[in-house]
Design a protein that fits this description.
Elements: E1 3-5, E2 17-19, H1 34-44, H2 52-57, E3 67-78, E4 83-89, E5 94-99, H3 104-108, E6 114-121, E7 132-139, H4 140-173, H5 193-198, H6 201-217, H7 223-239, H8 244-255, H9 275-280, H10 289-306, H11 319-331, H12 333-339, H13 346-362
Helix pairs in contact: 4-6, 6-7, 7-10, 8-13, 10-11, 11-12, 11-13
């Protein structure tokens, strides 16, 4: 005898096996607390983009993959050997879910519950069809609540990181004491349209100081060139968490703020980017200040990371770290690795000392 039951809304936990129009022989999975469900989901590395509709359109392409469904339980058909539960997915697809009689007491209390379930398609060698095995399931409202809390915590964490970066950038950029960074003429005392468009409020506040400092090193620069160089340094320094004073020190050592200069080895522009580096960073014009600084700051960041010590606080550099990074910038990381430190090349050793001296002066040390 078959009895059809529809039940009132209640909350519970449930593990079910899904039917694609007919009963499938699958092992029962018992309900679990939402904490265990979320932990299992993280361990499983399921595909959050895969839906039931997409998987069922081509089961063979999704064997071995796990994905999540969610929907409402509408009722159940109680038979002598099994219970078949009816679920409507959020996309409107109606499915039947089967559970053995041993789960009768648990499932009978699950009326009206919205559930989440992690499922995976499995081959049925006998029939060549695509059964679906339930891996885990939990109450949807509880999972949604925990996801909301986790999302809010992650948003607060990112906001704290962003605020910390902005604060660090604003402090380190404006902290130069040994070198005067006061605006030199009225044209540089304001903030340019480019700076307002691309720089953070913290970077905008010290834009005039850096613009004035740059023009002191090369009075032949046009106003547009000074603007582009200043915005490039402040924007990419903050983006890649590099002290902009270190970028300034490197550019002085490399080109003395001459954007069109070329070395006898073919290095180009403000940061003296080599042709292979220009290709690597997809520079369409290596002499363009913005493009050149983008590549230079990227390389500084990568080389600082190469020599970062394990317990070193984020945003702080050691003299050794900067020295090795500058040596790698000048002579290549391979040369640093080969010699176990700054290579014994006179040019590289002088270069490292000059960048360090300039950086210490800019920091007021």
């Amino acid at each position: 005898m078959i009895r059809i039951v529809r039940y009132p809304a209640r909350r519970s936990l449930i593990h079910l096996a899904i039917l694609g129009g007919m009963a499938l022989a699958v092992a029962p999975v018992r309900g679990m607390p939402v904490e265990d469900y979320l932990k299992y989901r993280r361990q499983l590395a399921y595909d959050p983009r895969l839906t039931y509709e997409a998987a069922s359109a081509d089961w063979a392409a999704h064997y071995g993959k796990a994905f999540e469904i969610r929907g409402a339980l509408n009722g159940f058909i109680e038979g002598s050997e099994r219970l078949t539960f009816m679920i409507t997915l959020d996309g409107g697809t109606a499915l039947a879910l089967v559970a053995p009689p041993a789960e009768r007491a648990l499932l009978a209390r699950a009326g009206g519950t919205r559930i989440r379930a992690l499922i995976t398609p499995e081959k049925d060698g006998a029939r060549g069809s695509a059964p679906v095995r339930v891996l885990a399931a939990a109450d949807d409202s509880e999972v949604t609540y925990r996801e909301k809390i986790a999302s809010e915590q992650e948003a607060r964490r990112k906001a704290r990181i962003t605020a910390s970066r902005h604060t660090t950038a604003s402090r380190t950029i404006a902290a130069g004491r040994g070198v005067s960074l006061r605006p030199m003429n009225s044209l540089l005392q304001g903030v340019s349209d480019m700076a307002r468009k691309y720089l953070s409020p913290e970077a905008q506040s010290i834009y005039p100081h850096y613009a004035a400092f740059i023009i002191r090193h090369n009075k032949r620069l046009s106003r547009d060139e000074v603007d582009a160089i200043t915005v490039g340094i402040l924007y990419y320094s903050q983006r890649h968490r590099v002290d902009p004073r270190l970028v300034v020190a490197l550019i002085i050592a490399e080109s003395d703020f001459r954007p069109r200069t070329t070395s006898h080895k073919g290095a180009m522009g403000l940061g003296q980017i080599m042709p292979d580096e220009a290709r690597s960073f997809k520079l369409t014009d290596p002499y363009d200040p913005i493009q050149n600084i983008r590549a230079a700051v990227n390389m500084i960041r990568m080389k600082l990371d190469m020599y970062r010590e394990g317990d070193q606080p984020a945003g702080q550099y050691t003299v050794r770290q900067i020295s090795l990074a500058m040596a790698a910038y000048n002579a290549g990381a391979g040369a640093v690795r080969k010699h176990g430190g700054i290579p014994p090349y006179r040019e590289t050793q002088r270069y490292v000392q000059r960048v360090l001296s300039l950086y210490k002066a800019l920091c007021g040390a």
